[in-house]
Amino acid sequence: MTDVTDTFHLTVQHPRPGLAVATVVGEVDMHTALTLHSEALEIIQRGHPRLALDLAQVGFCDSAGLSALIRLWHAAQAAGGLLSLAAVPDRLMRMLSMTGVDALLPVHATAAEAVAAMSAGQPTCADVHGSVTSSSTGGGHSELPEGEPAAAQRQETSQAGNVVQG
Hints:
This protein has 166 residues and is α/β, with parallel strands linked by helices.
């Protein structure tokens, strides 16, 4: 029998007005892709149309996860923002490249680079990427530019019961 884990957590930080970094932990597959989509869509709809997804701790992503990313890209665009990916694991990066989605979604080596690019209003380019080969099922962690005030952090609970930091 195959073990299926529904391990998935999403934590959010708001380093700038209108900008959020969501750290995704776990697997993004047919069991969790809808949760990723709905929680990230809620972030966009709450006034953070520029969203960076930190994927360093994603162990697996299938076609349902890829579809969720594409739908989130459309939602961010419709809200006048954009979706960027950070610390994309090698396997997911290959899937993005093979499908041509890497031409739509800006990819950055770290969440800090994604935040810097989105904060500076730089043109986005999908050829700026790095890879992360390790993943973890531990708590979420985002790299943000140094000097961000700790007082800007707050916690709330998402509909799925996951901790959301802002």
